[in-house]
Amino acid sequence: MVLAAVEHHEPPGRRLVDDDLAESFLPSGPRALARLTRWAPLRAAVIAASERAGPGLWASIACRKRFIDERISDPASEIDAVVILGSGLDTRPYRIARHSDLPVFELDQPVNIERKAAAVARALGAIPASVHLASIDFERDDVMSVLDANGFRDTGRTLFIWEGVTQYLTPGAVHAMFEQLRAVTPGSRLIFTYVRQDFIDGTDLQGAEAVYRRFRRRSQIWKSGMEPERVEEILRGYGWTVVEQAGPSYYRDLYIRPTGRTIAASPIEWTALAVRSA
Q1: What EC number(s) does the entry state (predicted)?
Q2: How far is Cα 74 from Cα 63, in angstroms, rounded to an integer?
Q3: pTM above the 0.90 mark?
Q4: In the chain, N or C: fewer CB atoms in 10 Å?
């Protein structure tokens, strides 16, 4: 969300993602930093520092957010509800609530839900009636039970968003989530992101050695991965049909080139859109 806040200070034609609420949702320290990046030289320095630490991750994260935002705003999508699995400080529910009473369910760890409620109260004064916050442990709890307990009704036109989460879970928890999502009505959609399995295994670091040291070697922060070539087969086994996948070339052609920026997207993280099969 710091990234989204900083990107919002880019001129409109150069932004990779547009999120005018991101800055206000941040804790005081990151919020102050984001405000300082209104000054273009400092903003460029922050982005350059990110590039040194994890080449391409700045653009990948910004572009995946834009990809998801576009699927929500697409008038042809006919969405009856949005479920965010691992919401963090995501501002999407509150940007949606400006224009619609579309129900949005935010699920995350209890500590994150508490922080989110406090951030929303500080930034907006109150949580909109259409937004529902619920605590969950993705390693242990059943997502459908948590949703049912919080008033979710499945019409078959729900968009599930699982952004920036799968790599932090054990393979067993990722498998369990896909199994639980078998219960949703056909026609529902799922957007999720994942880190490449060969990066997790350490067999292809894609020039991101510092990221590997931080998330895999020093401690096993990232635990799970998938291979783009096998995602369709894997999802089919859980009753989902992959509609499209977005990786570095997709982001380059659709989002980065039109801005005129020379930044590149990382090949280690991908985004997939799938539909629950009939």
Answers
A1: 2.1.1.-
A2: 16
A3: yes
A4: C
Say whether pLDDT at 216 is over 80. yes
Give the number of domains in the chain: 2
User: Which phi and psi angles does 105 have, rounded to 5°?
Assistant: -115, 120
pLDDT at residue 224, as a whole number:
97
Which tokens belong to 44?
């460029």
Shared domain for 27 and 97, answered yes or no, is: no
pLDDT digits (tens, 9 = 90+) for 107-140: 999 999 999 999 999 999 999 999 999 999 999 9
